[in-house]
């Protein structure tokens, strides 16, 4: 695709990256076949190719309207199009640049500004989010549906009481996350217990917090980069002490931490450290790969019935990790199945289910119908947002797959 960048973006870091990405696009349209919003709405401008045209026009100096903003807002950033694209177009990076420049040119309504500011201020801040979640759980029956769906009940499936305190020679860092400790705390506990069973100690740096994804996707880029720098500062002493990896059990966070090197590439003080952090970042399934035999020998419970696995977009498209969770669960004697159209998004997509609820619920219900067709005893996934979003629409238990592994080991 030939481009002629306007003065406002020419010879800038964003301009150079956007230009390189745009020039890879050959207009083939393969991406539309795997775009969830195009499938729902049937509008070319609500598919990757159409959004690329909108961004190209903006970068070339064409007027930017609320319509442009709407079509970019509707994008889930699921990156399914990247997996499909034969030309290697890095659409996810392009749409982040596009959204940032739309924000600068198209004013939002007061209501939208307040909602987005609230999300960017409360969700990444555990000090604010944790008490808000606890309050929400106490009054959950009285909340309107839109809020109730975001507040899981206090009692969760496969609950275990405590994080192991055993010291081991092998150590890994764990990103505790911002919403996960308050929303679904058993995921972190399960992760630590499974690693402990393998003789690996889990270390949490208390100064670390949100990975930066929430603010980045809401176009608060500077604040997102500050989140990343804070995490690097918190982790760096442990990196220097020789931790083996930075373990992440929320695939959305993992996809972002693996991008730290790119996102902070122009920061002289942090560029090298950010690259090292990205190199050490591992989804928990990557850490457990190769331990199937050891885990199987430790298993105390067998004969688990059919489980349906929903692979989050940030795992299969963002991190390009496919098949590993299924192999691990199968090695433990679990009958695991993927639903039809497993490559499609469930509609959670970070804050998307709050800012675009109609589309999010439509995608959720489609996904749940495909999962229910497998007649599973349980649905498992690999991202806190997907788990909460799916659970809001079904009575089938939904959990993180690492919780199921823990249950097999400690039952």
Word description of this protein:
The chain has 411 residues and is α/β, with parallel strands linked by helices. Among the domains are: 13-105, Alpha-helical ferredoxin (Fumarate Reductase Iron-sulfur Protein, Chain B, domain 2, Orthogonal Bundle); 289-410, 3-Layer(aba) Sandwich (Rossmann fold), CATH 3.40.50. Helix content is 52%, strand content 7%. It contains 24 helices and eight strands. The strands form two sheets. A four-stranded parallel β-sheet has the order 2-1-3-4. The chain has a four-stranded parallel β-sheet with strand order 6-5-7-8. Strand 7 (378-381), helix 23 and strand 8 (398-400) form a beta-alpha-beta unit. Helix 1 (13-22) crosses helix 6. The model has no long low-confidence stretch (mean pLDDT 92).
Strand order of the biggest β-sheet: 2-1-3-4
Provide the residue-averaged pLDDT. 92
In the CATH hierarchy, the architecture of the domain at 289-410 is 3-Layer(aba) Sandwich
Computed CA radius of gyration, to the nearest angstrom: 21 Å
How much of the sequence lies in strands comes to 5-15%
- How many DSSP H or I helices? 24
Question: Biggest β-sheet: count, sense, barrel?
Answer: 4 strands, parallel
């Amino acid at each position: 695709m030939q481009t002629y960048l306007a003065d406002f973006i020419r010879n800038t870091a964003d301009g150079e990256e956007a230009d390189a990405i745009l020039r890879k696009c050959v207009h083939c349209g393969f991406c539309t076949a795997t775009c969830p919003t195009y499938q729902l709405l049937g509008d070319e401008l609500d598919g990757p190719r159409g959004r690329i045209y909108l961004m190209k026009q903006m970068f070339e100096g064409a007027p930017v309207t609320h319509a442009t903003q709407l079509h970019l807002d509707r994008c889930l950033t699921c990156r399914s199009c990247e997996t499909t694209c034969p030309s290697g177009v890095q659409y996810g990076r392009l749409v982040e640049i596009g959204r940032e420049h739309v924000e600068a040119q198209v004013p939002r309504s007061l209501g939208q500004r307040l909602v987005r500011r609230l999300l960017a201020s409360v969700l990444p801040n555990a000090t604010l989010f944790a008490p808000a979640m606890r309050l929400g759980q106490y009054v959950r029956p009285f909340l309107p549906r839109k809020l109730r769906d975001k507040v899981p009940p206090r009692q969760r499936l496969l609950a275990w009481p405590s994080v192991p305190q055993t010291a081991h020679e092998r150590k890994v860092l764990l990103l505790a996350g911002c919403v996960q400790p308050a929303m679904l705390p058993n995921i972190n506990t399960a992760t630590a217990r499974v690693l402990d069973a393998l003789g690996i100690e889990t270390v949490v740096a208390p100064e670390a917090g949100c990975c930066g994804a929430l603010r980045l996707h809401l176009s608060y880029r500077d604040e997102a980069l500050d989140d990343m720098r804070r995490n690097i500062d918190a982790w760096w002493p442990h990196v220097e002490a020789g931790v083996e990896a930075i373990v992440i059990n929320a695939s959305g966070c993992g996809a972002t931490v693996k991008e730290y090197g790119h996102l902070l590439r122009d920061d002289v003080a942090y560029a090298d450290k950010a690259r090292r952090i990205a190199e050490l970042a591992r989804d928990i399934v990557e850490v457990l790969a190769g331990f199937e035999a050891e885990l199987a020998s430790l298993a105390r419970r067998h004969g688990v019935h059919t489980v349906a696995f929903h692979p989050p977009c940030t795992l299969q498209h963002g991190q390009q990790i496919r098949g590993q969770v299924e192999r691990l669960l199968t090695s433990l004697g679990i009958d695991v199945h993927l639903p039809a159209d497993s490559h499609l998004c469930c509609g959670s997509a970070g804050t998307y289910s709050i800012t675009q609820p109609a589309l999010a619920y439509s995608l959720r219900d489609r996904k749940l119908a495909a999962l229910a067709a497998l007649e599973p005893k349980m649905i498992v996934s690999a991202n806190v947002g997907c788990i909460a979003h799916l659970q809001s629409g079904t009575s089938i238990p939904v959990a993180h797959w690492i919780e199921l592994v823990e249950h097999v080991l400690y039952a």
